[in-house]
Design a protein that fits this description.
alpha/beta; six-stranded parallel beta sheet; 42% helix; hydrolase activity, hydrolyzing O-glycosyl compounds; nickel; GH4_Enzyme_sf
Length: 219
């Protein structure tokens, strides 16, 4: 199935390589064009070069292109995956946590909720709204998957500003149960039946049971 998949923020070594790797493992997406987009041309070029070499060396049925221009990247896009951050994220996250603390507001981290999450939202939501405006202009039928935080605040704002945009917030927190639950319970993940629900970054495991016995695995 040939699709045009745009990765926004692809110059990130973590997001760019990780997401490209996920796509390249998909049989369903074989034949697709992966469009790498970032505002940093230097890091974008590095990711593009390495991804292209990986595909060519292994003869994988994918095409890689890269551009710093959203108008070019979004033309004919079927899917868009967004993962951006503004400024020096670790230094700013530190401020988001420490400044409220000086006024007696203690947060676990402050990336998504509380006053720290508000500061984070005020930085990152404006450029995301600009991105969404361009999506509506160049590829309004595209489905957008967002991995940027604060997830719930971004999704709320975008769906209010662009109610016709197919905008989906995703997080690895439930998927990460595959790594954590086996270590906690001492059994393979395949031996468990797990149900989870809730908003991104506000989710909860509703039930966990052993498949062979039906016994409740919740501590």
């Amino acid at each position: 199935m040939s699709q045009r998949i745009v990765l926004i923020g692809a110059g990130s070594a973590q997001f760019g390589y990780g997401t490209i790797g996920d796509i390249l493992q998909s049989k369903v997406l074989e034949g697709s064009t992966i469009v790498l987009h970032d505002i940093n041309p230097n890091t974008l070029a590095v990711v593009e070069q390495n991804a292209r070499a990986f595909i060519e060396e292994r003869g994988l049925p994918f095409t890689i292109t890269a551009t710093t221009q959203r108008s070019e990247a979004f033309q004919g896009a079927d899917f868009i995956v967004n993962s951006i951050e503004v400024g020096d994220r670790f230094a700013l996250w530190e401020q988001d946590w420490r400044i409220p603390q000086q006024y007696g507001v203690r947060q676990v981290y402050g990336e998504n909720g509380g006053p720290g999450g508000l500061f984070h939202s005020l930085r990152i939501i404006p450029p995301i709204l600009e991105i969404c405006a361009d999506i509506m202009k160049y590829c309004p039928r595209a489905t957008v998957f967002n991995f940027s935080n604060p997830m719930s605040r971004i999704c709320t704002t975008v769906t209010r500003a662009f109610p016709d945009l197919k905008f989906i917030g995703l997080c690895h927190e439930i998927a990460s149960l595959r790594n954590f639950l086996p270590r906690i319970l001492g059994v393979p993940y395949e031996a468990l039946e797990v149900r989870a629900a809730g908003l991104n970054h506000f989710s909860v495991v509703l039930s966990a049971r052993y498949k062979d016995s039906g016994q409740d695995a919740y501590p």
